[in-house]
Design a protein that fits this description.
This is Isoaspartyl peptidase/L-asparaginase. The chain is of the alpha+beta class. Helix content is 32%, strand content 24%. The protein has a single domain, classed as (Glycosyl)asparaginase (Glutamine Phosphoribosylpyrophosphate, subunit 1, domain 1), CATH 3.60.20. The chain is globular and about 50 Å long.
Amino acid sequence: MSKYSLVIHGGAGTIVKEDMTPELELAYTEGLSEALDAGFAVLKEGGSAVNAIKAAIVLLEDNLLFNAGRGSVFTKKGIQEMDAAIMDGSNLAAGAVTGVRNVRNPIELATEVMRNSNHVFLSGKGTTEFAIKQGVKLEADDYFFSQFRYDQWKAIRDSDTYSLDHTHQRLEELMKDRKFGTVGAVACDMHGNIAGATSTGGMTNKKYGRIGDSPVIGAGTYANNKTCAISCTGHGEMFIRSVAAYDVSALMEYKGLSLQEAMDEVVNKKLVSMHGEGGMIGVDAQGNTAMILNSAGMYRGVRDSDGRYEVKMYK
């Protein structure tokens, strides 16, 4: 039996203690802990890495604090358009969706794409048709409404500005705030198989059907038993241009770097040189884990079969 482990994130960016109330800090800690516990319970019972990360992300998608699923931000049109991806490192199977509307848990839909569609990537209206066919739960628009997300959007909806997510500051400070709201998870199960997944509501006030790195296999999400499973959060355009998630795998496979070394190379050297801000979480098939960021903070947590249990926010 291999060491098994789970790592999750809930977004990165300008997350600093002075902006956080004790109540909000507790709420984030509890939300991350609940997701960690749900995913780890699957691993502890001998479940697969894929099912573990799905269980963790479902709870994060259901939590209004995180920009995914129910907590997704408003687009320029005043609606939610969600993206998600999942990848199984044991066979390189993957599923991704973008521009999703009214799907309660986009990560469940991405998993259905991986398992039951003969495709990898679905978009727009086609995702809804497939969700209905697969019996994935849908919700009305009001399920996805939250007042603080609406206030974020209202502050900038008449401009061409977009915002990089979670903010709990005064609205006049909105545009100084840089937070990349994405949720993700990676896991290694007791059979030595690994998997990674990411889910997001994207950018507040985004237009033109913008898609970030989260659902793009190799950019925001990647998994391969030979190397690693990665989930990213940050300024998506830079993560796409640098093929960030796959680059970690390539550094491990072709240069022989460890998980920690490869992630550090991508996050703190390559992305920094491109002015790409954010972070990523990773796991390898030996159950080793890493959480690396070049921003002021990242909502994150890790739990493994050796007894490690950590939830962190700040750098």
